[in-house]
Design goal:
Elements lengths: L3 E7 L6 E4 L9 E4 L10 H7 L11 E4 L1 E5 L6 E6 L8 E7 L2 E6 L3 E6 L3 H16 L10 E3 L1 H4 L5 H13 L6 E4 L4 E3 L2 E5 L6 H10 L3 E6 L3 E3 L3 H5 L4 E2 L4 E2 L2 E6 L4 H16 L2 E6 L17 H16 L4 E4 L13 E3 L20 H6 L9 E3 L12 H11 L4 E2 L8 H11 L13
Parallel strand pairs: 10-11, 10-23, 11-14, 14-19, 19-20, 20-21, 21-22
Antiparallel strand pairs: 1-8, 2-3, 2-5, 4-7, 5-6, 6-9, 7-8, 12-13, 15-18, 16-18, 17-18
The structure holds 4-nitrophenyl alpha-D-galactopyranoside.
Length: 437
C-alpha cells in the first residue's frame, strides 16, 4: 500500500484540530488536537471489526477513511480532504505532525476543499455536497422501534416477542415496529432456516401486523460464519476475513457472484412476502472486504451493488437501517444508519458503568443526520439495572434521529416508562440538526 503526499500545512500546535472519520458504524470518529494520535486497535479482531480491516493506521497521528478535516488553528481556512467518488473508492487519508507542519497523505484519489470557519461548517458543507452528488433522496421520517437485542440477546424466543408486543399495546407505548434481532436464524448465512426458539416467522409477522404494528427483522446479510451450511456448500461465494463472532470465523459474501446474489434476492423476497418491511442490516462491513471477487469490482462498488439488490428485493416502501456499515459507501442506499458502537455488549455488566460507549461518535457524526439518512445512536435502555440510563437518554434526546428501545417492558419502573414515552414522542424531523453540535 503506498501513500502519496497530498498536502502540507502550517498548523498551530495548540489550536490546530483534526477530524478523523472512521470506516464503519462502530469505528471511532472524533476531533483531536493536531499533536494527538487517534485510537488504535488493541486486538487483531478489532482491526477487522472496528477499523478499516485491511489497513492498520500509522504508529502516530491519524488515519481517516475517506474524510479528514483540518482546522489549522491559525485563522486560515479549514481544509477538507475527501474521497473523489464514494461510490467507487474510499481512500485512507493520513495526517502527521512533523516540525510544526501537518503532512497529509493518501492511498487513493482525494479532493481538497477550503472552507472558512471551523470543522463543523466544513462537515455540513461536505455533507450537503455529497448528498447532492450521489443524488440521495431527502431522508424519510423513521418509525419508532422496539428491538429485542439489549435484553434478550441471542436467547430471544417467539414467546418473548409476543410478551412484549402485548405489553406495548397494554401500556400504549408509541412503538411502530417490533424488530426481532439476532437469534431467530439457524446460522450466520443460513437465513432461510430458523433457530430452535422460533417456529414460524410468517405467523409472528402476521401477529405483529394484526396488532397494528410493523414487523422488523435483523440480518447480517453480507456476513457468513465459518460454521454455516452456506460456507460449507458455497466456498466460492466467500471473500476476505471479517473477524470473529458467534464462536466462529466470519467471511464476506461475494456480492458480485451470481449465485450469492440470487440467494440474497430470495432471502429478502421471502421476508418481504411474509410481511417484514423494516430491516436492520448488520455487520455490513463484510460486504466491502478486500479480496478476489467473481467480478472485478472494488470492495466499495461490490458493497453498493449488494445494498441496491436488497432495496430492489424489498421495495421502495421498506425501511432499511444499516449497522456495522461502511459509512460513506452507504450514502443514498439506506434510510437510517447506526453511527456508533453498541449501547452495551452482553459481556459488559449492565451496572459496570462502561460509560456512554457511543456518545463521541454520535456527536461527531451528527452532521450526517438529515443529509445522508436518519442517524441511529443505538437503542435506549431504560430499565433500572442499566446504570447509564439517565445520561444515555439525554444523548438520544439530543442526537437520536431514529428512536428505538430495547427493554423487556415488564422490567421498566415508572422512570423507565416515562422516559421511553418521552423519547418516542419527541423524535426529530429527518432534517439536519441545528449547529453547533
Ligand atoms: C446482534 C448485535 C446487535 C447490535 C449490533 C451488533 O465485534 N463484535 O463481536 C460485535 C458483536 C455484536 C455487535 C457488534 C460487534 O452488535 O450493533 O445492535 O444487533 O449485532 O448480534
Amino acid at each position: 500500500m503506498t501513500f502519496s503526499p497530498i498536502d502540507e500545512l502550517d498548523v498551530s500546535a495548540e489550536h490546530g484540530r483534526v477530524y478523523e472519520h472512521g470506516w464503519q458504524s462502530w469505528s471511532p470518529t472524533s476531533t483531536y488536537t493536531v499533536s494527538q494520535t487517534s485510537p488504535r486497535p488493541v486486538h487483531e479482531w478489532q482491526q477487522l471489526m472496528r477499523f478499516r480491516p485491511e489497513l492498520p493506521g500509522p504508529p502516530s497521528g491519524f488515519q481517516a477513511e475517506g474524510l479528514l478535516v483540518v482546522d489549522p488553528g491559525t485563522g486560515s481556512p479549514s481544509k477538507v480532504y475527501a474521497a473523489r467518488d464514494i461510490r467507487q473508492e474510499v481512500p485512507s487519508i493520513r495526517a502527521e505532525l512533523l516540525d510544526g507542519r501537518l503532512a497529509v497523505t493518501a492511498d487513493g484519489p482525494v479532493a481538497v476543499d477550503l472552507v472558512r470557519g471551523g470543522i463543523e461548517p466544513a462537515l455540513t458543507g461536505y455533507g450537503d455536497r455529497i448528498a447532492l452528488e450521489v443524488g440521495s433522496d431527502a431522508p424519510r421520517a423513521a418509525p419508532n422501534v422496539w428491538c429485542s437485542w439489549y435484553h434478550y440477546f441471542l436467547d430471544v424466543t417467539e414467546r418473548d416477542i409476543a410478551e412484549n408486543l402485548a405489553a406495548i399495546s397494554r401500556r400504549r407505548l408509541p412503538i411502530d415496529v417490533i424488530q426481532i434481532d439476532d437469534g431467530w436464524q439457524a446460522g450466520i448465512g443460513d437465513w432461510p432456516e430458523l433457530s430452535g426458539r422460533f417456529s414460524s416467522l410468517a405467523d409472528l409477522a402476521a401477529r405483529i401486523r394484526d396488532d397494528g404494528l410493523r414487523a422488523g427483522i435483523w440480518l447480517a446479510p453480507f456476513t457468513v460464519g465459518s460454521h454455516s451450511v452456506l460456507a460449507r456448500e458455497h466456498p466460492d461465494w466467500l471473500v476476505g476475513d471479517g473477524g470473529q463472532n458467534w464462536g466462529q470465523q466470519l467471511l464476506g459474501l461475494d456480492l458480485t457472484h451470481p449465485g450469492a446474489r440470487s440467494y440474497m434476492w430470495s432471502v429478502f423476497r421471502q421476508l418481504e412476502e411474509i410481511g417484514f418491511d423494516y430491516f436492520k442490516l448488520d455487520f455490513l462491513y463484510s460486504g466491502a472486504l478486500a479480496g478476489r471477487r467473481h467480478e472485478d469490482l472494488t470492495g466499495v462498488a461490490a458493497y453498493r451493488s449488494g445494498l441496491e439488490l436488497i432495496r430492489n428485493a424489498v421495495g421502495p416502501e421498506a425501511y432499511l437501517l444499516g449497522s456495522g456499515a461502511p459509512i460513506l459507501p452507504s450514502v443514498g442506499l439506506v434510510d437510517a444508519m447506526r453511527v456508533s458502537p453498541d449501547t452495551y455488549h452482553p459481556t459488559d455488566s449492565e451496572d459496570a458503568r462502561r460509560g456512554l460507549r457511543g456518545k463521541t461518535n454520535v456527536v461527531a457524526r451528527a452532521w450526517q443526520h438529515g443529509r445522508f439518512w436518519v442517524n441511529d445512536p443505538d437503542c435506549m435502555v431504560a430499565r433500572p439495572s442499566f446504570a447509564a440510563r439517565h445520561e444515555w437518554a439525554e444523548v438520544i434526546e439530543r442526537y437520536g434521529g431514529l428512536r428505538s428501545v430495547s427493554d423487556r417492558i415488564a422490567d421498566l419502573d415508572e422512570w423507565g416508562i416515562q422516559a421511553t414515552k418521552r423519547l418516542l414522542n419527541s423524535a426529530p424531523a429527518p432534517t439536519p440538526f441545528a449547529l453547533p453540535y
